[in-house]
Design a protein that fits this description.
434 Repressor (Amino-terminal Domain), mainly alpha
């Protein structure tokens, strides 16, 4: 499961706010967050840049949220 819900909640942001950042609807973002839909590479890139963490961290492949260089 993606870590995007934790990242969003840690920053007190709404699904609608993040949906706007990645260029989708709140409904589609909700499906991504709950694992009912896959995330595209482009949306993953936008989230990584927005949160300043690696895509590996978002995908659950890295244990630590390290800032992007």
């Amino acid at each position: 499961m993606y870590r995007i819900k934790d990242l969003r909640e840690d920053r007190d942001l709404s699904q609608a706010e993040i949906a706007k950042v990645i260029g989708t609807t709140q409904q589609q973002y909700s499906k991504i967050e709950t694992g009912k839909a896959d995330i595209s590479g482009e949306k993953l890139r936008k989230l990584a840049l927005f949160y300043n963490v690696s895509a590996d961290y978002i995908l659950g492949l890295a244990k630590e949220a390290r800032p992007l260089k």
